[in-house]
Amino acid sequence: MPPFTTIAASVRDRLYRLALRMVGDDGEAEDVVQEVLLSGWQRRREIEALDNPPAWLLKMTHNRAIDRLRSRRVRTTNERAAAVADQTSRTPHCLAESADTLGHIHRLMQQLPADQRSVLQLREVEGLPYREIAETTGLTVDQVKVYLHRGRGKLRQLLLHEQIVER
Amino acid sequence: MNHTHATALLDRYFAGTTTPAEEHDLKTYFRTADVPAELAPYASLFAYWEQQGAITAPPRKLTARPGLRRTLLAIAAALLLLLAVRGTYRWQQPGLTTFPVAERQAVDWSQHEITDEKEALRFLKTVLTTTSDKLNEGPGITVRELREVRDILD
């Protein structure tokens, strides 16, 4: 079994992306990851013995992020402000999308409910199978499928509504 | 993947019925293929997923753990205190050359020897009385403390 430090190093970016997606603020996302890794370090013997330690850490991140969202319910304004304007230069492909379009999609994503956002993030960005998404979010596999369907559908509606995509 | 296949997959993608492999194919298609105009706007969405996947956590700040920092501060404070005490002590001590050292002299015990029989007896009684008193002090303290313990326990 790999040591906790190796597990943490391999999964840290994924935890950060999930936390960022959920809380919408990079500093707060960093805090969430820090808390999760600290908590994980204190229980490292148990975690190292698990079948899928990254799934456990993702689940912890999801739960911590939910706690944060619950602790400050009125968040919409700040989430929208935490757009990806400074991240657009990091896009890995050469398509000619403007930063405005990607930023707009980001803002549309932030309009989705937290559960749909996290399911979409884990599927579209992290490429996790339904079972692992269910483990991370505490939903059933069927619920994950429904949330994914609704999330994508809602996103498409938002895109159509904002006239980014024309049917 | 051709345009027709991509359109069909896209419909299934939004219906939530695509497999991970098909979703991967779609992402590859929108990243690399010459996408027709009617599908081009969707490229932004897949580009967005790609962009989100490229985000990495900021580098960790190398800060000492709070516990370690406290320990180091405590050690530093203790060392500083020791140095201060030692400095003060040395400062207060006179120099070795000026310290008044008594000259060692032999004691003539014969001057203190008791030769009178009554005086010797009186001295002996005094010594024995004092010793007896001191011997009783210890048990007295012990008995008192045991009594206190018993009171507490009761």
Written account of the structure:
The complex is a heterodimer of chains A (167) and B (154). Chain A has 167 residues and is mainly alpha-helical. Chain A has one domain: Butyryl-CoA Dehydrogenase, subunit A, domain 3 (Up-down Bundle). In chain A, 72% of the residues lie in helices and 0% in strands. The termini of chain A are far apart. Chain B has 154 residues and is mainly alpha-helical. Among the domains of chain B are: 3-53, no CATH class; 117-153. Chain B is built from five helices and no strands. Chain B has helices spanning 3-15, 20-32, 40-53, 66-92, 117-153. In chain B, 9% of the residues are buried. The A-B interface holds A 12-13, 15-17, 20-21, 26, 30, 33, 84, 87-88, 90-93, 95, 97, 101-102, 105-106, 109, 121, 123-127, 129, 145-146, 148-149, 152-153, 155-156, 159, 164-166 and B 13-16, 20, 23-24, 30-31, 38, 41-45, 47-58.
Blueprint (SSEs and pairs):
The complex is a heterodimer of chains A (167) and B (154).
Chain A: H1 4-23, H2 26-42, H3 44-48, H4 53-71, H5 76-81, H6 99-110, H7 114-125, H8 130-137, H9 141-161
Chain B: H1 3-15, H2 20-32, H3 40-53, H4 66-92, H5 117-153
State the main characteristics.
heterodimer; A: mainly alpha; Butyryl-CoA Dehydrogenase, subunit A, domain 3; 72% helix; B: mainly alpha; 5 helices; transcription (chain A)
